[in-house]
Fold these 4 entries.
Entry 1:
Amino acid sequence: MANESDFRLDARIPTGPIAEKWSKAKFEMKLVNPANKRKYKVIVVGSGLAGGAAAATLAELGYDVACFCFQDSPRRAHSIAAQGGINAAKNYQNDGDSVFRLFYDTVKGGDFRAREANVHRLAEVSVNIIDQATAMGVPFAREYGGTLANRSFGGAQVSRTFYARGQTGQQLLLGVYAGLSRQIAAGKVKMFNRTEMLDLVVVDGRAQGIVVRDLVTGKIESHAAHAVLLATGGYGNVFFLSTNAMGSNVTATYRAYKRGAGFGNPCYTQIHPTCIPVSGDYQSKLTLMSESLRNDGRVWAPKDKADVAKASSDPASIPDDKRDYYLERKYPAFGNLCPRDIASRAAKEACDDGRGVGPGGRGVYLDFRDAIKRDGEAKIREKYGNLFDMYERITGENPYQKPMRIYPAVHYAMGGLWVDYHLQSNIPGLFVLGEANFSDHGANRLGASALMQGLADGYFVIPFTLGNYLAGVPAASLASTGAAAFTDAEAAVKGRINRLMSVNGKRSVESFHKELGHIMWEDCGMARSKESLEHALKAIPELRERFWKDVTVLGGKDTFNQSLEKAGRVADFLEFGELLCRDALEREESAGGHFRVEHQTPDGEAKRDDEKFCHTAVWEYQGDDKAPVRHVEPLVFENVKLATRSYK
Amino acid sequence: MSEPESNDKPLNLTIYVWRQKDAKDAGGLVKYDLKGVSQHASFLEMLDILNEQLVGKGEEPVAFDHDCREGICGMCSLMINGRPHGGFPATTTCQVHMRHFKDGETIYIEPWRAGAFPVVRDLVVDRAAFDKITQAGGYITANCGSAQDANAILVPKDDADRAMSAAACIGCGACVAACPNSSAMLYTAAKLAHMHNLPQGQPERMKRTLAMVDAMDAAGFGNCTNHYECEAACPKEITREVIAMMNRDYAKAALSYREPTAKSDGAG
């Protein structure tokens, strides 16, 4: 157990002007001799854009890579579900974009809670990502002349988003998977499908391996390496209902946290404004409707409460002067393309005001009537056909005729394990990439920036920074999986599984997850207060206690057992949810996706407190029976002036 | 496929589910009665409801693969009443909703059936054979860092659109499950057509075609005998044209492509 004096947060931000930091850092980094690289073993957990790109690229460089994913193939990682696009500062549209503007938009969009140097690097390498993905054969949308097409996305006034129909995530992931497959075939990457990481192994203060469970045979096994990379995605499923894939979980990062890695800003969760509303208590997940729809769809709710019933059954009958196009009204400069946190809160506000449409009054309209009138149905079908079809499949309603009903849903985690400029956590040798780290999006992520960050970390950052780390680690120092740290961790993993299987209670894992999600959404969702958070901090430990007394996990531990997989993940969510609420309680300001009702402007906008909270909160685990310690990394803004964020 | 029910009445269903402990077990259909399923629930949510009931009775829940539940990850499968993904147009199992079923209906649910996709448990199969086909050549050799500016490669819009349509494959395996020969031709050909409609795919075109077809055969998939069940079953509407393209390329490559040797390289 790390005591407070061991806990160091050195962000290792290079000195010098912002635009030169990354070049300078790259030059100053130590290199590993090409002939020595094969002697270094690297573990990559996760095979999405960040993990898959890292595994493939590190193997191309010559490292000995092992990659793990819980799905049946690396191609299925949740990056696949991203619909709308990927940002890059190419300025192909000649509309005023630049690396600095993408940097500026991202820092502002994140409500000034991201680290400037990381964000600038992200904007710099964004252009290389598009080049690399294109070379890999990613079929981005094109203009008739053969050049790449772009569209605009929330939070930006330029068109810098590249896309592949409504499945940009899948196409980028298939590019990554192709590169990874090439390295697997070449024997440079050993791929472990259907294998879940259940613990991190730290030896002599360095991350040197992991303990995994083979999900088909149930076998518990250790793997040693010179460095461990976690690219395990976000924790949105702590809310039970989210747009995340069913398997997305916090276990890998939370286990690392319990081994001493700092957890950064867990309260920063993104609620996406345009999702299909909840339809019933059987609901297992929520489906996102791409933000790109806000390019042509207009968001509205009835002006008068009296019109709600009529608007719900026959929206076309509500005349324009009885409709409140509230985003256009409140944010004339950005209109329907204002950032996600702002659009989500505005939808909640309209529904809280009693003007929501559809079942339970939890919905607003995303209306394409005017776009169809302007451009014709064929044009709209070409742009968004697959999304419209998906909406109809799920709801049974035709969005060409009736506006889409939408409501905000949990979508993305800006928080994650704390990392320095090198993407290394406070545990040497443990690197964290993509959504799993906290680094680039501050308190709110802009649309089309998640894919960008995953690929930036995997393709263009870690290949440099990992080499710098490994250059200082002797190749001969590879730990033995027979060492005590490994056997102890294996014993802990097995003990935990035995404990889960021996409760023999009455309630399903699913029912506990649902109950936790309800607490999280009600008390720590789009609006949070001291009162609601204190309630959650009481309710979650009680629920956790009931879980360990009354959960039932059927089946065997040495077989394919989805209940057992889920039980372990939910057990971690039951601890992590408390950490998230604790962070939300301590951050007494509103910023981006974190909205504290006590801290708002007279017109209901988020009110930051830069004097007290211009920092990243980093939580250090102290033991199951002790409160974690909150550390801070101060944020310094030298290039973007701290200002009240305005999209008016 | 039936028209959606017009009312909101919950459904009572009889379902037969394939239960199989592991790859070695013979397995068989087990009957379950399910009452009060909302028409707005998805097919997988209906299975969630069944599993909750089974757990409540102390019985092991049904294992089935699923992840994104929005039709893109390719993880979900299921033969529903003998049709992959239930046979609804352009729809994966996770996007099928119960409003397409009638009150009192009997539904049969089985795993993908193909020698190359062995059953892991219940409705879960092992699709590693698809990974093997991709590993044989389903990539463009371009190390990270070696790319030129993206707009230096001009791609006619029609070609890009064709490539995109083929690339839409989610690797679910419905094509294999639908085919009487358990052929993976649609899957393999879609990957090839994605790359071969693009200029970036041309340098390795012949070699890639031969390698991927060989890998497909080696994995134990059958041949195509033009039933086109694959096209009908594909939730991403990949057309059989990709198979024609692959066959043309394969014939050409098999007849004309040879690995270069030191002798034939020419250059001193």
Entry 2:
Amino acid sequence: MATVTTPMLPRRVHNALTDLALVGPATLAMLCLIFVPAVLVAVLSFTDYQFGAKAFNWIGLENYVELFTDRTGKRAVFNTLYYAAIVIPCSMILSLLVAMGVHQVASWNKTCANIFRTSFFLPVAATLVAMATVWEMLLHPTLGLVNIVLDMIGIGGERWLSDRKLVLTTLAAIGVWETVGYNMVLFLAGLASIPRHLYEAAEIDGADRGWERFWTVTWPMLGPTTLFVMVITATRSFRVFETVATLTKGGPAFASDTLVYAMYREGFIYFKAGYASAITMVFFIFVFALTMLKVVVAERKVHYR
Amino acid sequence: MNARTYTSRALTVFFLTIGAAILLLPFFWMVSLSLKTPEEIFSPELTFFPGSFYFDNYIKAFQQVPLHRFLLNGVMVCGGILFFQMMFAVPCAYALAQRQFAGRTIVFGMVLAGLLVPYHVTAVPIFLGLAQLQLLNTYAALVLPFVASVFGIFLFRQFMATLPPDLIDAARVDGLSEMAIVWRIAFPAAWPAATTFAIFSIVAHWNDLFWPMIVISDADLATPPQGILFFRDEESGSDVGPLMAAATVVTTPLVLLFLIAQRWFIQGVTMSGIKG
């Protein structure tokens, strides 16, 4: 068959040119937008480069030392871990409970289960920045619904977003609100893949109470899904930015500063490219380690998605 | 149905309803506040429903800030990103799935490695590059960094690898060029992957705040979430009604998309778990 577009070229050359036309643009874009910048950020993290400066110095690990010894730097690392430490277990437990409930409802009324699933997933679909401004209203110290209701039942309200001791927990609660629906969907997929006959077998063996069936069948069978959900929730928690930027800007007094927000502030408000690159690298190492854990789990083909 | 089953069902529905009510409360409150008069909002008395539908908040929201402009920017940016992502990803995915060529393993290896890199990681160097090219505060700054979607290449490759080779061979015999096969045979056949990817991409970029905050300071180019922030900071909390109206307007498109195309939506969004 004669080639259509360039009949003069030998077939081998033509094929190579076709491959280049198909793969070349994407490969070049990946290099320019992912791999070269990723290498550059690692290189920059060892410099004191500032945006707009004519020159820079190699300063070795100084940026990293600053991040882990400076009070603000340490805070950002600690706060991110603290935030994740609340969001991961709370979101996972709640979403598993919701998923089991919705799964049970689905066994006798599909429409009802779908309505629940839609409701719980809605926060995932919504624009987080817009919803954060709503949370700001709900949590307003005097006019917010939360404090008014707490007042009515006799518990004093709090300054949820301006109390240094509370602010991170408040942001984590919004993080849980935002991720429960997402994790529920993952757990629902896991629950759907558990064969029914295992429950019947467990019942014959005498595990006829709900919680007995849970510990003998559901929990062990969900193990891989649970690990998968944990890694995804952890990754999402480490990336927390929108709520911080909208509600607290890292304050009060850096009490809600997180890694990605610190990266934004140092890099793009104070223009300290070198220091921001070091923060980026630390963030990257956290996320990379988690992703590798997920890859290892996926490789063993033990999750049920 | 025995009493125990009945009780357990009732309890499940009861607790799920409470949970759903708490989760949906912010949505209800947002719409409710957006329809209340300023007097109602700032009255010490707690009312759940607005006394009347006070649409002035919506009119004010569009008058006080260029809300229509933010929405248009969001559509342009999401549309532009999706268009270029497809232009780059689909041919590459096709070649990876259906052709043998030198370097195939390397390119696919790059795709897999790229999945491990969150887009925050490349922010500093890409910002430097855009500044060098004098592209800060342009649409290009919002679109360009995202045109190489490794997730898109990965998704389309997985799907196109399942296309029957006969289909492709038949098209070659008919004299179609490879580029024509990509767009006229392989791409339509990979429509489910395209839908999933489109939703994934649109949701990610409509909602994104991190990148617009870095490259855009001109309010005329603000994306919807950034517009909400401009609005909020300008009004410093005094104009709650219009702010909630703006929040409702910005949130509605994706919520509608979700309600209309639930299955695709959930698939598209949960797929993002693959990406780091």
Entry 3:
Amino acid sequence: MNITDLKIAEEATITKVKAPEPIRGRLYAMGIAKGNRVRLLDHTLKKQTWEVDVEGTRVALRDEEAKAVEVEK
Amino acid sequence: MKKIKAVMVGQPNVGKSSIINAISNARLHVGNFAGVTVEKKEVEVRKGEYEIDIVDLPGIYSLHAYTPEEQVTKRYLLEESYDVIINVVDANVLQRNLVFTLQLLDMRKKTILVVNMVDEVEEKGGRIDGEKLSQLLGIPVILASAKHKKGVDEILDRVIEVYHQPKCGCKIYYNEKIEEEIENLAKILLKSPHFTDYDQARFYAIRLLEKDEDIYRIVHDLPIFLELHEALGEAIRRLQLEFDVEDVRDLFADERNALAKSIVMQVMQLPRQETLTDKIDKILIHPVFGLPIFLFFMWGLFQLTFEIGSLPVDYLDQTITNFANWLKDILPPGDFNSVITDGVIPAVGAVIMFLPNILILFLGINLLEQTGYMARAAFLLDGFLKKFGLQGKAFIPLVSGFGCTVPAYMAARTLKNPKDRLITMLILGFMNCSARLPVYVLLISAFFATHSAGNVLFAIYIGGAILGLFVAKVLRMVLFKGEPEPFVMEMPPYRFPSLKALAMELWIKSKLFIKKAGTFIAGAAMIIWFLSSYPHHPDLEARYIQKIEQTQDPKLKEQLQNELAAKKLELSYLGQFGKMIEPIFAPLGFDWRLSVATISGLAAKEVVVSTLATLYAVGEGNEHSSTLVQKLREYVDFKAAVALIVIIMIYSPCVAAMSTFYAEVPQWAWRTFYTIYPNVLAWLMAFSVYQVLAFLGF
């Protein structure tokens, strides 16, 4: 599963980031990296933009990027 | 006096600027980094027998620089010479920040770590063990809070202390297998005379394993390159096999993340409670209510800008007119009197009057930024902006554009994809900058009822934004095919804005504005005055003076005087120029005066107001139209006024903005396009509006 499969306020552990470079490096720099805990905070009405909390950092991402982050509950 | 040069680096939103502001007795210089238009802040401070110079580098998330601003910081770190690195981190998100710190420590430069916002962690029941952190990293650690001025002055003591150490005490090492490969590569690098220092060779080896193109370019020209290239390929293959990863970059990311995590676990007691940010976010970025709330904030800002900002306008206007009249009487009559009282004072005065409006608008935009709401707005609007071929982050330059187009062009650097950036920059001019505000305020007060003024202003701003989006869509469909850049953005926690920083920004803004009014605009006004007063026509004047002397009727006398002034203006250089360009603007209902004012707006938008003030200053002494507003009502019709508003909304921004665009965009084709299309569009739109209004019977 990936971030977009989580329900709001649900937590999971990141297992893999599949996005291509350089986005992958960007996601890492924001804390979206293997082993970190992620919690889904919110999404927009049409589920186009997602907000997550990773180890205390809030990050906004688009659907495409959110789908590229695999997680495990 | 010994000089120490330090650089301050850290991820965005860690409060570097507030630390700089909190250092006591420091002298701040604001400038630009060489060759680029990124703002460079530098402070000089004396401590004992040392003079410490601290350069504040733009925020950077990672040495894998992504945005042009990050590139500036990375270049500076790699290429410039400095003695000490001051790495600032945010205590609230220590783990993520430490990942970058670990990258910095690869450099093995003398480094100190400043953990800012410790107070926020403690308030939430968390704790950080600074001594332990210092032991683990091998560098001095300061627990600080810029807000409470805690630990800030200790930074200087530590900088001096570290400066005297022979080298960095960093203790961070990666997995044995990785270190082995690093050492092999470093040894090859050391064969080249380019490297004398093992630490530097080690750093380069790490960066090379991480496929850092900037470093690759440097070693590319070294004689050892062939050997290095081969060894690097093998090392990468071995590491990929050993750790079962597809990309060595992932390996380093994992290593640093794991290291940072274990460090945080050892030094920090995490606060665990729902923060205020969680609660506020539940409302402000609510899927349904988020957007209406955002629009309400924007509407409120423009209402405030107009309603409060216009309170002192009438008073200021009257004072300036009185002052000019008073000066006219005491100065000896002649050209000097005229240039001051008819040229400079009304022009500068007309612009200064709008300082309150501009300050309120700037305050609002600053507040949005400092509180963290700007990122929320980008989040809310991303889906919407994507439809127009833009992305959520483009919102930040777009909103800055309401303040001033120049920094907005620079803010567009946060967009990495060149196409996204260019589209955003091409439509930024449609976001009405604060310099245009005086023109709008003037025209609105002259031609619209007071109770609807705030709404008209809001409509102008929204109208500009909608037009911008529409143009973006067209550009994306016609000229820039392809998907917009991915959207990944940090949402900083909500913060109560620092009043000191806000006051500082406003003070700098007022100072710059008054300086601009006193120099640039006064100069432009003098030129306009000269062009509108020369050449003299002695026979014409003689004829009229004779006529005036002959009549007894005071009304006729006044009429003749006004006629003379108008004739003189018409025959002046400016009048001739206006007449020449009048045919272009005639379909919009402009007379030559409005045409000249429109052209003069290319110098700076405020100049439109000051030019109008000079050109309509004819027939002084008429009690009923002593102020500019009344004169405009007399000479300009409603349709032309609206057409002028439309022109101002769309046509090219000022020279300063245009040259910034040229500096940011090197391609001549785009520069040419940028210079022509807004003006054509402006004329067409103004013409349509004029015709529609005429059709409706205005």
Entry 4:
Amino acid sequence: MPMTNILSSFRGKKAGRAFILPAVIILLLLTIFPFLFSLFLSFGKVSFLGGLQIHFAGLKNWLRLFNDERFYNALSNTVLIAVIAVAIEYVLGLGLVLLLNRGVKGSTFFRVLFFLPMMLTPIAVGYMWRMMFNPTRGPINHVLPLLGLPAVGWLTEPKIVLYSIILTDIWQWTPFMILILFAGLQSIPPALLEAAKVDGASGWRLFKEIIFPLLIPASIAAILLRTIEVLKIVDKIYILTGGGPGIYSESMTLFGYNLGLRAFDLAYGATIAFSLFATILVVSIIFLLMTRRSQEISLE
Amino acid sequence: MKAVRNERFMKVTTYLLLIAWAVFVVFPLYWMLTTSFKSKLDVFLGPKYIPWVDFKPIVQWWIRIFTVEREEVIRPLVNSIIVASISSLLAVLLGTMAAYGLTRFKFKFGPLRNHDILVWIVSQRMMPPIVIVLALFLMFKVVNLLDTRLGMTLIYTAFNLPIAVWMMRNFLSQIPISIEEAAMVDGASRSQIFFRVVLPLTLPSLAATFLLCFIFAWNEFLFALILTFDKASTMPILIASQHFQRGPQWWDISVMSTVAIAPVVIIALSLQRYFVKGLIPISK
């Protein structure tokens, strides 16, 4: 048993700790401490008169948050963007992965190209799409009338602006779904698919009965990770609309930044940030509970 | 006969759909790249699509960014390169050490075992940056790390550690342990084994993890927006500030964005094989 052997000979506790300690210290100092500090701030009031002072303010910030219409606006914007963007990205990602898997020539080329957008600097992506959406000089509004469709105020219409942001997110992040689902598809044993084909399964049935069930774990991972990320959305919105028109496209992170630093109310900013953290936690837990059940069903 | 025709129809549809998505992916990039070669008039009278056909490409803006605007651009560019490189190196070094510790030793901190420690580290990546950045603003203010490269390097190291630990743990757990045993029999110490045996064996994975961390640090916006003002500003901050300073000078913004995107595109193209490999464990 070489494994237990080496583990026992490696059990010298000090040496083991020396390996993980630096990482743990960095995380404690730069993530856990600020996290707790931020929680503490949400129950306080910060003032800079006569040096930095933090007073205890009880539930004041939290009561203000729950009575703040701007909070509900930012929360519903963020959740709406997350739900729609992730749903579309997943469907498109799955479809594209299946197309890539049909053994067409040049599929490596397509795959490399399809992965690309998610690596690009979000600020640059934001400008890229702001140019695309430009009402008079952008290509989209130039082409629409040629097709007999009306030009659209992509970034200025309150009812449309969120969908423009979603489109930008789809452009940048469908690649993530492609990546994870592609990896998931690679890990299906080819023998299994061959056997199913021999048994006469093809097309839709092959997908529904073999491929999709085997992709469920990858799908859950992809959807959960992407949902968590998109709930934090800020950089593309910052460039595309700055949260406007008005606050029609303000996300939670942008709201926290605007109130915490622009209006310089750090304690209230921390409260907003924490409510986002709570949202992400709740969404993740609900999602995991729901998918656990569906996974059990699919196993039966 | 019918089956053959059907097959051909499927094939053509597949290609058409793949090409349609490829066009959707490429067009905004193409638009940005061509805008960086358009004259002001061609931008304002736009949209102009094809160089030499409906507009005459010029290199004026590209020359300008390295001459007139050099002062403005060079510092954020250097900051981005330094901060992203050093923080990624640190994240990979510390992350690999932690991953090595977690795959080779048994830990017990109170109720926490190896798996709990791993989950704890990786789950840090889930935390919204806005939660910690407001507190970091105050902390950095107190210890004078606001608007410094050191401060940004530290925070990006912490930001990338979870990814580095996750990736390296997957790679390290594939290395047969017998190699290390052999070295141990030869009397090598633990740190010698780590630095002389394990690290050289994982060189390609180290490189892949480093580049992935580099991309994340290079692209990061919110920490830089809040924790830097001027001296330590990075490329995303420079580009984001363009609009507010001078109105939308699309040609300049396009040049700067292309400069910011270029290294990431090169890295991404050279790395794509590794991403699929490194991610297969997530999808299981």
